[in-house]
Design a protein that fits this description.
Elements: E1 4-8, E2 13-17, H1 28-40, E3 54-57, E4 73-77, E5 87-91, H2 96-102, E6 107-111, E7 118-123, E8 126-131, H3 145-156, H4 166-170
Parallel strand pairs: 1-6
Antiparallel strand pairs: 1-2, 3-4, 3-6, 4-5, 7-8
């Protein structure tokens, strides 16, 4: 798609950069994420540092009718690596990566930390940073990951797909996971 979506939660801004400078030498998923990390982070950052990028990159064939092509990589400096941060990855299943590709992006990079909880809504070219809410029935903050996914689908439709962290991630647990 030649587009990488970048969301900065410090400034609450969204921008798009090109994938073209990295390909064909680095193809999506791990390769692309690691190349960007090497360029933008010459020194490791702590896994809980707001500068730590959360990168989600689908594979080159994600979204196509190709077997075993649908596992995007979540890449970041590992919080569980404390006190020795290293850049690493994990893969996720389901079709979140295909949805990101269909929205027109080769990857997502989130940096920074908002003053209040937020969620990011991606619907094609419309990308919004919205409050996650606290203390109300439809608040996302404080819900477990299943409840979060159900709330998102009730709010945005059954085809909505979610990456979420749940209470462990909200409390900055170094062993929290991203769920889809």
């Amino acid at each position: 798609t030649n587009r990488i979506l970048r969301v900065d939660l410090d400034t609450m801004t969204v921008r798009v950069t090109e994938t073209r400078p990295y390909v064909p030498d680095y193809l999506a998923a791990r390769g692309l994420a690691h190349k960007i990390a090497w360029e933008e982070y010459p020194e490791p950052v702590d896994g809980l540092d707001p500068r730590n990028p959360l990168m989600v990159f689908p594979g080159v064939m994600t979204g196509a009718h190709s077997p075993y092509s649908g596992r995007p990589n979540v890449c970041s400096f590992a919080p569980h690596g404390y006190p020795y941060p290293w850049f690493t990855r994990s893969s996720i299943g389901a079709n979140w990566g295909a949805r990101l590709k269909r929205a027109g992006y080769d990857g997502l990079i989130v940096t920074g930390a908002g003053e209040t909880p937020v969620h990011i809504l991606i619907h094609d070219d419309e990308v919004r940073i919205l409050p996650a809410g606290t203390g109300s029935e439809d608040a996302l903050w404080g819900q477990d990951t299943i409840e979060t996914q159900e709330t998102i689908q009730a709010r945005y439709g059954k085809t909505a797909r979610t990456l979420c962290i749940g209470p462990a991630g909200e409390r900055l647990s170094r062993i929290a996971t991203v769920q889809t």
